[in-house]
Amino acid sequence: MELGDALEWLDAHQDLERMLADRAAATPDPGRMRRLVHLLGDPQSALPVLHVTGTNGKTSTARALTQLLMAKGLSVGTFTSPHLERINERICANGEAIGDDDLADALSGVASVEPLMEVRPTWFEILASAAFRTFADLPVDAAVVEVGIGGRWDATNVVDATVAVVTNVGLDHGEFLGPTRADVAAEKAGIVKPNSTLVLGETDPELYPIFERESPAQLWWAGRDYAVESNELAVGGRLLDLRTPMGHYDEVFLGLNGRHQGSNFADAVVSAEAFFGAPIEPDLVATAAASVRSPGRLEVVGRRPLIVLDGAKNLEGARTAAVALDDFGPVTSRILVVGMLAGKDAAGMLEALDGAKARLVVACPPPSPRAQPSAVVAAAAAALGCATAEAESVPEAIEIALAAAGVDDLIVVTGSLYVVGAARTALAGRLR
């Protein structure tokens, strides 16, 4: 199939949007994914895998871990989700998104075995399988695989991870993972296999026994076995001192914005140590830290006015973003462009984002079947005392924000990665 035909075939399958909108249609079925990869020759078993989950930070951690493995000379496949602008972004080899022809070939390979399935696979299962096949066919030396949702019942959990990484545990996707943090932790702990080293970035001691019960081969816990000892603001990122189970890395410049990225990078370094069974050369850590990029995560895409994109999609992420925005220095005023998915607490999210500081909140719908009406977001902003505007699309919201902004203002685009992805497309070539 050509890429257009392959994507049309893919989109005919039940996707994540419909699964989340219809709880009854989303019953986990790991047997379906196991059957699919078995028909493809179990490509997920052809190479070592580092499996990453967490409520927030898992994509940034996966990208940092990829850079660390590449710095050590490995060829690395990376599977992340969701994408921002192009579906190709989900499947990368050595940091580069898969080409159109290769993506079409990978999807065609999955399509060729679908008639042998007793139950039709889902959209996400097809993409994960296509990624595993791509990595096995290249081949790569290792794969960094990000969980879609949760862990235990996720389609990616057909892998037998050498290293399992849990960045943190928060409350998101409660309709799937349970109402409490303990429930969420139990789901995320499901990626741990008996031969795995678990790198646990979550520091709540009440949740520790949940992970310990999975009996990993080793358990390295943030705060006990490793830590970010210094995390200072630097031009264009952070300056870190890291203590790890196997070493100490001082004055590491990390090219990502936000204090929280120091913790994500620490998780990645410790995971790389676990994978190699040895400390990483300090110069290689420095190279990886300076080169890592995580689009859509406190990403600066324009100046005068300063434009920052951040895909905060839950309360924890919104609070983290609000703190990090102060790192960009004084601005005349702040304008928020915000869109959220249905089910999100608009008032709570805006409060967590320090929305009351905004001179203007431009509400818009994400380009998703589950978009929350912009009127809901605008009403929540008005309740905080903010001036508001409503847009019918993300590009229109960007135009409203730019028209209202002065050269010394800050425009923050947030609330959903779908909003951020559409904003990146709308702003491409204009401001970078």
Beta-strand level of the residues, as a percent range?
15-25%
Shape: globular
The protein's oligomeric status is single chain
Q: What is the share of helical residues?
A: 25-40%
- Structural class determined from secondary elements: alpha/beta
Strand order of the largest sheet: 4-3-2-5-1-6-7-8
What's the end-to-end separation, in Å? Answer: 35 Å
Task: Give a structural overview.
With 432 residues, the protein is α/β, with parallel strands linked by helices. Helix content is 38%, strand content 19%. It is built from 16 helices and 17 strands. The strands form three sheets. It has an eight-stranded mixed sheet, sandwiched between helices. The longest helix is centred in the middle third of the chain and has 17 residues.
Descriptive labels:
432 residues; alpha/beta; eight-stranded mixed sheet; six-stranded mixed sheet; globular
Structure summarized in a few sentences:
The protein is an alpha/beta fold.
Write the layout of secondary structure elements.
Layout lengths: L2 H9 L4 H6 L8 H10 L9 E5 L4 H14 L4 E4 L11 E3 L2 E2 L2 H14 L9 H15 L4 E5 L16 E4 L7 H4 L3 H8 L8 E4 L7 H5 L5 E4 L5 E8 L2 E7 L4 E7 L5 H17 L5 H10 L7 E4 L3 E4 L5 H11 L8 E5 L7 H7 L5 E6 L10 H10 L3 E4 L3 H11 L5 E5 L2 H11 L5
Parallel strand pairs: 1-5, 1-6, 2-5, 6-7, 7-8, 13-17, 14-15, 14-17, 15-16
Antiparallel strand pairs: 2-3, 3-4, 9-10, 10-11, 12-13
Helix pairs in contact: 1-5, 4-10, 4-11, 5-6, 12-13
